[in-house]
Amino acid sequence: MAASVSEFEPWLSAKLKSLKTDEGVFGNYISGILESEDSIDEKKDALEGILSEILESNITEHINEIIEKWESCKPKEVLKPVADVDLQLAKLLESQSLATTTRREYTDEEKKIREAILSQYSQLSDNEEDQCNAEEPESSDLVKNTNALDVAAAAKERREQARLEAQRKKEKDREDREKQKQLKEEKKEKRKTQKGERKR
């Protein structure tokens, strides 16, 4: 995705500037959405959620433009020319040694121990098995692999954090505009008062 970043990021930054919004906050959030493994529809929904906070009209048009630009900037998979299959197979077989399995021979003592263990477990009734399963908690030696879930959760958390930052920025901008408007009004009133005093 390095090629897409080099072309897409500056374009997105310019696009967000033209929409008069903070490209630092919203740019990272939008890029995160586009780089996710979500479907196009899910990406469009997420983009609509962001752009509806920034824009009042033509939201779908802007979403489609961003998605089209992203798709055009994504690096295309390069197909390698297909070489002679027989030649490739021959090279592969030459490079790999065939795995041979050797059957282990047990000593008489090992055979007896093995049979004793197997017979002990085969004598457990279904009821005893259920009871053992109910009593024994999951083995702590076995740990569930949650890598994919962790990555997805981290990506979701980053998107949520960026969305919250964007929301805070938007609220701060709104407050700043209100303060500026209020200061302007106060200055206007002050000037009117000063003009009225001069006339007297």
Based on the model shown, name its key terms.
mainly alpha, single chain, 200 residues, 8 helices
Task: Describe this entry's structure for a reader.
This protein is mainly alpha-helical. It is elongated and about 125 Å long. It has helices spanning 2-18, 23-35, 40-54, 59-73, 85-95, 108-122, 126-135, 147-199. It contains eight helices and no strands. Helix 1 (2-18) runs antiparallel to helix 4 (59-73) and helix 2 packs antiparallel against helix 3 (40-54).
Catalogue the unreliable spans. Answer: none
State mean pLDDT (0 to 100 scale): 78
Biggest sheet architecture: none
Classification by helices and strands: mainly alpha
Tell me what portion of residues adopts beta-strand conformation.
under 5%
Give the overall shape, derived from the CA principal axes.
Answer: elongated
How large is the radius of gyration?
Answer: 34 Å
Number of beta strands: 0
Please write the string of helix (H) and strand (E) elements: HHHHHHHH
